[in-house]
Here is the input.
Amino acid sequence: MVQVAVIGAAGYAGVEAVRWTLAHPRFELACITSAADAGRSLSTLYPGLAGATDLAFVAPNADIIAEQASVAFLAVPHTAAMELVPELLSRGVTVLDMSADFRLTDPDVYEHWYGVPHTAPDLLGEAVYGLPEVDRGRLPGARLVAVPGCYPTATTLAALPALESGVATGTRVVVDAKSGVSGAGRSLSATTHYVAVTESIKAYQVGTHRHTPEMEQTLSGIAGRELSVMFVPHLVPMSRGLLSTVYLELADPMTTAEAVELYRMRYADEPFVHVHEAGVMPSTGEVRGTNRAHIGVAVDGRTGTLVATCAIDNLGKGSAGQAMQCANAVFGFAETEGLERSGAVV
Amino acid sequence: MVQVAVIGAAGYAGVEAVRWTLAHPRFELACITSAADAGRSLSTLYPGLAGATDLAFVAPNADIIAEQASVAFLAVPHTAAMELVPELLSRGVTVLDMSADFRLTDPDVYEHWYGVPHTAPDLLGEAVYGLPEVDRGRLPGARLVAVPGCYPTATTLAALPALESGVATGTRVVVDAKSGVSGAGRSLSATTHYVAVTESIKAYQVGTHRHTPEMEQTLSGIAGRELSVMFVPHLVPMSRGLLSTVYLELADPMTTAEAVELYRMRYADEPFVHVHEAGVMPSTGEVRGTNRAHIGVAVDGRTGTLVATCAIDNLGKGSAGQAMQCANAVFGFAETEGLERSGAVV
Amino acid sequence: MVQVAVIGAAGYAGVEAVRWTLAHPRFELACITSAADAGRSLSTLYPGLAGATDLAFVAPNADIIAEQASVAFLAVPHTAAMELVPELLSRGVTVLDMSADFRLTDPDVYEHWYGVPHTAPDLLGEAVYGLPEVDRGRLPGARLVAVPGCYPTATTLAALPALESGVATGTRVVVDAKSGVSGAGRSLSATTHYVAVTESIKAYQVGTHRHTPEMEQTLSGIAGRELSVMFVPHLVPMSRGLLSTVYLELADPMTTAEAVELYRMRYADEPFVHVHEAGVMPSTGEVRGTNRAHIGVAVDGRTGTLVATCAIDNLGKGSAGQAMQCANAVFGFAETEGLERSGAVV
Amino acid sequence: MVQVAVIGAAGYAGVEAVRWTLAHPRFELACITSAADAGRSLSTLYPGLAGATDLAFVAPNADIIAEQASVAFLAVPHTAAMELVPELLSRGVTVLDMSADFRLTDPDVYEHWYGVPHTAPDLLGEAVYGLPEVDRGRLPGARLVAVPGCYPTATTLAALPALESGVATGTRVVVDAKSGVSGAGRSLSATTHYVAVTESIKAYQVGTHRHTPEMEQTLSGIAGRELSVMFVPHLVPMSRGLLSTVYLELADPMTTAEAVELYRMRYADEPFVHVHEAGVMPSTGEVRGTNRAHIGVAVDGRTGTLVATCAIDNLGKGSAGQAMQCANAVFGFAETEGLERSGAVV
Here is the structure.
């Protein structure tokens, strides 16, 4: 059993990493950290885990983590990750980083969007971007995996076959995405109060969301040309779930059936990606609690547009599930290990 | 007091027209019809209206309606409206039609999208499209008002200042819209079951929704050139509310501040339209239960895009509220008469 | 027009009092206070009120309030109210207090449940308990009205006819109540985060909720004997709404039809109370946004129990709506003035 | 691997049994039936199960079921079960019946509450009531298990330690329970439409719900005396989850701490039951998607009442999860087999 530490385990992505670790046949939960909750038991914060583990939170400390675990799932805010990662790597701990700190390859782009200089730029070259469906080749044996953001994951999976194959042309991609509230984290704010969220939808951070450069980097890499992304995220009254609706200009006319076939061929061997038949679009509810990505594709001949929507659970394939999938690949396990089981289907 | 009939009063738009009529100082509810519920009291179906009226549903019949009312709000499905409207007009009843039957000026376009020939094409020229913010000139004294669809209303208000002023260029407009469940009506289906809707979002009728040609007709008229609309509606877990996110290509660079100013100038005299300051986007919750439209605008300089989002209540400004606003204009009342009061703000 | 101040207008009950005041034909909003938000406009916090008023929040100050208004709706926490009320009364301002500070007639009971001594016990005798359906006799001309709590309002209306008539016997009343989240106020806490609330229900403060002695005081007064209340509140995933399910032991067998008749007779002249026919129970949704109370009654012959459920909007009849109803009575207006209009019915 | 058939697999409890079976290490899904959906694939109805199985629905037929499976989970309506069960038993198929048909030991009580005579009364003696926490003794090797109803499960677990130990006295038990919408099943009705459910709560079937006699039978058996149950179920805006709040009269004073200790002792060896510490009450969210029951206990000394609330997932411990737990016991597996994993904890 590989010993696991979850850093920042009190947050939503952190506790989700805990949940997946507890269910995994080859990983064993050894350490959970939370600066704010040190000393408290996990089930005090998450009573649903009563009886699942006796572990209590400890304050994060690289020495202690390295003593107890050989792999760490990092669920800490950006900037905190780039401080901790070098300490963990130097102590031989493999890191699955769910923060944004090692996703962008260019430290200048990082500084532009995050407003602070990158303090570990030397590690950017080593960090492997953890989206197995795009490139799983560098994952085995990796020391540091930058787990993609939730919006980039759904958007990339929605756009990948069309961009990679060249059926999509143009240089501007419109991405209209919708996320549940857990994407904003567990900290309290007026915008996450139940009364502010329920029965209402709104856009936020139009054109300024920090996942934008990550999408541009990944989509440009796939397309082999510079793409700009017009990205508008929305907040939806649901606790989990993320849907990305991507609008791609078609180079040449094609039918929806052809587009579905293109997508199904591309994802034929992917255990966590499902492409719906023509006419069916995925709901976020159907992937809730899982590491799955469900995709629907439609071609609008009138406007020459291919529309792809991808539904994921922002805490599953959009975060902790994907981190676990990557960890499986890093350690040479089947990527599906510990992740097969579906969430509730109703 | 002008006597009012609400036809199809058992449905969501119908009962909303009833509610606004009951609160109106110059309209008086005289007749409510429902083929399926004839004989039942209104409060049997909507206990929230207990004590508000003693009226019971009657079966729809043009003679009876004309006897009791001089104006009718039609909340019946498309095709039913084009059967009933000539009968009502010939009996001298003014009609506010909330169905789609008289919105499209070209009967061929109607037949293409609705799959049946139009049976009253001679009335299409007379019907006034009831979006006062675009053109209220023909409303006073009109016999037949085609109240716009919910998606076209929010989309048009979001795009209007940019298209009319010429700051938006291009021929393809991307419209990504999100609606609450009441937009699908009160009839039962697997897709409106609570368990299917809650905590989930999905796209539907991608590129094929029947509001598409209505948007193209209206936006093209405003822009003075042929526009095609790439329209993707989504179903959101909320009972009411509609948000349209519209992506417009900019002819020349402009700032968000300039865009906000453009929008505020255009809507300065509109009693029901509010444009948020730069950086603030509207939520559907803030217009719930009202006839208001709240708009946010942002310019993304990187991609040369103006993004406008418009939030309405699909049963308010998106249907019965707008019908009442038009009725006020038809009868020479202030457009705000009976519509001033805000819905609940929490 | 009577000039109105709303003290604590940034909170949920406060802004609801603002909304009702803005819609009232005889009250005029003159002053809104909020210590934390002084200087900000109302619509910054509540964009749904954009255009409704130009007022900005001011810091609460008795002199300023008294200068601008002759009546004040107090929506401040307990203990804050008993400090402010004497200052307002001494300046001639009529007070509708929505806090708990003047509801209990016995200062020792107050100290026992609220943990602090009462600092204005001399006013307890003057304060009029503002539940018009129980006793509206002392309201006209009152200087200080203690507006009842949300749980006591729904519970009292559910139990009143059975206790007053003597059909209910016994000394212990079981009250199982369910409230929406706005009842907990606008301040942030882990228990009001959307993710913690949605799709979940739980009990809280079992047997220890501070509304318990208020219910015992009121119900005992109605019954003419000492009653103890076993009260369990629950938190329900809804923003507004409150349902109280009350279990009363029957002295003698009676039918549900007889119980309904008893309730209908008792409330025949009450404009805001509706008793459903036998077999129909009220939902909180049907009274959302209104000042109404809808009641259902059933007799369970097997256990000799009369069950009454009462649905209100906790911010309507449970708080600001009731305060406005009382204010109408205080000033000699019809109790329904400004409160007639139903909220949205869907 | 034991071959499993799920009868009525298109419904909520049915598909939940499918999900648990697919995740089970010793059961293998061999057959799924649905009269209405024969020929369709499972994932057409439940896209969340895309890729999980290739099985399509077949029409229910005892011969075909017996050919393919040695155990059947029955998720069919009452009366349908008592027709099918004898056919399955005679063909050697073990039955876990999630319907109500074999829960009541007295066929007259069945006829009284269900309105039809029991057609297989001879099997009532053989049927084992499947609540392992009360009596697991007869489960190993049983041919027919009557899986308890969702309300009786939560209510019994809430009341069991207090009744069994004799600390609760009296003959009338008040049970105020709250259920999510999936409890009403997948069939369409006006009361399960999203718009009717969201943001609203109401009581239904006050004193007349068919789970009442099942509770009385089980609680009386535990207490060793005749108990009557005053039962009021409520519909809550959530898809899954059930909370039962039970009011028990105390024979003698005790503290909450003592009550918690009593409950913890009783359930010390139960793998699926957790008793919260004093002052903490369970939420249904914390057990969503699991087979767990979380209990909170409080003593109200003022009224001499012990209040216990029990939270379960109505489709988990309240139905298919419990059926699987019983199946494990029947076949001699550990009761936790295939049920260990927690659902999502956020």
Remarks:
- Chain A has two domains: 2-126, 151-314.
- The domain at 151-314 of chain A is CATH 3.30.360.10 (Dihydrodipicolinate Reductase; domain 2).
